[in-house]
Automatic annotation (TrEMBL):
Keywords assigned by UniProt, alphabetized: Flavoprotein, Oxidoreductase
InterPro entries: cNMP-bd_dom, cNMP-bd_dom_sf, FAD/NAD-bd_sf, FAD/NAD-binding_dom, Ferredoxin-NADP_redctase_2, RmlC-like_jellyroll
Organism of this sequence: Archangium lansingense
A Pfam family matched in the record: Pyr_redox_2
Spans annotated as Disordered: 1-22
UniProt xrefs under SMART domains: cNMP
CDD domains on file: CAP_ED (cd00038)
Keyword Nucleus among UniProt keywords: no
Cyclic nucleotide-binding domain sequence ranges: 24-144
This protein's name: FAD-dependent oxidoreductase
Gene3D superfamilies per the UniProt record, alphabetical: FAD/NAD(P)-binding domain, Jelly Rolls
Length: 569
């Protein structure tokens, strides 16, 4: 016997599919197999039959009775690479079976095979009708997508300078939408040169995204990339949805989950990716039910799958630019010119961090100035000093997260401390960390650099001391500005632009605290005036508002008062 095999890092990670093979590719019991068969039809398929191919939409679910189905990833060169094989008692599929997006892999039989085909239309019925099987499938599908992402299978290749603003924009879009990809950083990766030569690319054409079929997209806008990769789903402009939720942050996703689970035909429209501002949080530790914490992206990803499980549809990478609220059904206009009709609307567009009033800020946005602190941004500044500007929970989470890999985190706040604006557990960690330095009564005053940020200057307002530092990454997390420009006078806003709810134009209380000054339009989460800017609060508001929507869509008939009757003994 040779020496014991050394486990890879992914195999040692208990959250990795490599360490949870039996859950990623489970084998159903005979009883479960019989129940799955009741939802589909049995078929014999000869060797070499393609059951589905990358780029297909609305594919069927296959359960193997005899034989084998291989799952293939076709790279840019068109050559197939084996992902996994499904044998007797196993099933095909991953997360895109819950939506109408293009699938990422192909599947074909490796021998004559007997399978049960469950039509796409019946698949959701199987998942909801057989809860134990549905739980198995859901867990497997989530782990399979994680595996594709970890091993860069079924995705695209992104080539560009790792610190470049557009490279970061495209990578952030792919990561936050859970789309597998491999980054070739032309600043450090020797393999990048070979790809540039193969595809006859020059540095001035970067960044590029290379998709299967040797398709090359030169610095594509997010919406175009979404369309070309099949992330975007089509909607019928003549169809009126029961509910359209604008924004896929915690509040919007909660509204979608509860609305769809209660039978409302629900569409969610999101400008970038699920999660909203919370989706950029490295770890949320005070959210109920997650004692070890959860990243904002992971929380949003689970909520998105949950909404789709109940039938909600998500239209990603499409910003709503206006709403015709003078007639019903309401018509929402999107940036690509399309319209969507809705009987009821939930506004959950949230808020964004305010920008610093510092010269040259826009020049360095995406190239040293960041508004999120995830693993992607942390990798850019490993071993360096960084600045976090802000005194709220998001700033505290960012500082603690970054302190694990950077040399030092400088936290700059205008106030005299953190206690009034930040949760105590984060305050204590910041004070106790040897890698975090808190600078109170301090403001950033200058930025300098070439193509990238290289130097920052700040001033202490109490002492007047000005200091300049060789720092190339600043994380800005200050205040909140509502994303309400698209409402264009449709609703009443407060003096900061947040949506007023709970009272009509004359100041009379409305039936729901989330109802706006337009009947059938509601606002939840950070975009709502007076809301508590916390993930848990947004989720609560998103779930509770559905009750008011039901009352609006299905009002109780008003009839004569019931007649009191006396029944003789």
């Amino acid at each position: 016997m040779g020496p014991p095999r050394v486990q890879s890092e992914s195999e040692r990670d208990p959250a990795s599919p490599d360490a949870r093979y039996a859950q990623t590719f489970p084998r159903l019991s005979p009883d479960m197999a019989a129940r799955v068969s009741a939802y589909g039809t049995e078929e014999w398929l000869p060797k070499g039959t393609f059951l589905f191919q990358r780029g297909d939409r609305r594919i069927d679910f296959f359960f193997v009775l005899e034989g084998c189905i291989e799952i293939l990833d076709f790279g840019p060169d068109g050559e197939p690479n084996l992902v996994v094989e499904h044998s007797e008692g196993q099933f095909t599929g991953e997360l895109n079976l819950f939506n109408d997006r293009e699938i990422l892999v192909s599947g074909r039989t490796t021998t004559d095979s007997r399978v049960v085909r469950v039509k796409h239309a019946d698949f959701r019925r199987l998942v909801t009708g057989e809860p134990d099987i549905g739980e198995l499938i859901m867990r497997a599908f989530i782990l399979r997508r994680v595996g594709l992402i970890q091993h860069s299978q079924g995705g695209v290749i992104l080539i560009g300078p790792g610190h470049g603003a557009n490279t970061l924009r495209l990578e952030r879009f792919l990561i936050r939408n859970g789309y597998p990809h491999r980054l070739l950083d032309t600043e450090v990766d020797p393999a990048a040169g070979g790809f540039l030569a193969c595809f006859k690319l020059t540095p001035d054409q970067l960044p590029v995204v290379i998709a299967p079929g040797r398709r090359v997209f030169h610095n594509p806008p997010n919406a175009l990339l979404s369309d070309e990769l099949g992330i975007t789903e089509s909607v019928d402009p003549g169809h009126s949805y029961d509910l359209v939720v604008v924004g896929a942050g915690p509040g919007g996703l909660a509204a979608a989950v509860y609305a769809a689970s209660e039978g409302l035909e629900t569409l969610v429209i999101e400008a970038l990716a699920p999660g909203g501002q919370a989706g950029t949080s490295s770890k949320i530790e005070n959210y109920l039910g997650f004692p070890t914490g959860i990243s904002g992206q992971a929380l949003a990803g689970r909520a998105q799958v949950q909404a789709q499980k109940f039938g909600a549809r998500l239209l990603i990478s499409r910003a709503v630019t206006g709403i015709d609220c003078e007639r019903t059904p309401y018509r929402l206009r999107m940036e690509d010119g399309r319209t969507v009709m809705a009987r009821a609307v939930v506004i959950a567009t949230g808020a964004r961090y305010r920008k610093l009033d510092v010269p040259q800020l826009e020049r360095f946005e995406g190239q040293g100035i960041h508004y999120a602190a995830t693993a992607m941004e942390a990798q850019l500044c490993t071993g360096e000093e960084v600045v976090v500007v802000g005194g709220g929970n998001s700033a505290g989470q960012a500082a603690v997260f970054l302190s694990r890999t950077v040399a030092r985190v400088h936290v700059l706040v205008r106030g005299r401390g953190l206690a009034a604006t930040m949760s105590d557990y984060l305050v204590q960690r910041i004070h106790s960390s040897p890698r975090i330095t808190l600078h109170t009564r301090t403001e950033l005053t200058a930025l300098d650099g070439d193509t990238l940020l290289r130097e920052v200057t700040w001033i202490n307002r109490d002492t007047g001391e000005v200091s300049t530092h060789r720092i190339g990454n600043v994380f800005v997390m200050i205040g909140a500005e509502p994303n309400t420009e698209w409402l264009q006078g449709c609703l009443e806003l407060d003096n900061k632009g947040f949506v007023k709810t709970g009272y009509d134009a004359e100041g009379h209380p409305l039936a729901s605290p989330y109802e706006t000054t337009r009947l059938g339009i509601y606002a939840v989460g950070d975009v709502r005036s007076g809301s508590v800017k916390r993930v848990a609060s947004s989720v609560g508001e998103g779930s509770v508002v559905v009750q008011a929507i039901h009352r609006y869509l299905n009002p109780m008939p008003v009839g004569p008062a019931p007649v009191e009757m006396t029944v003789s003994p």
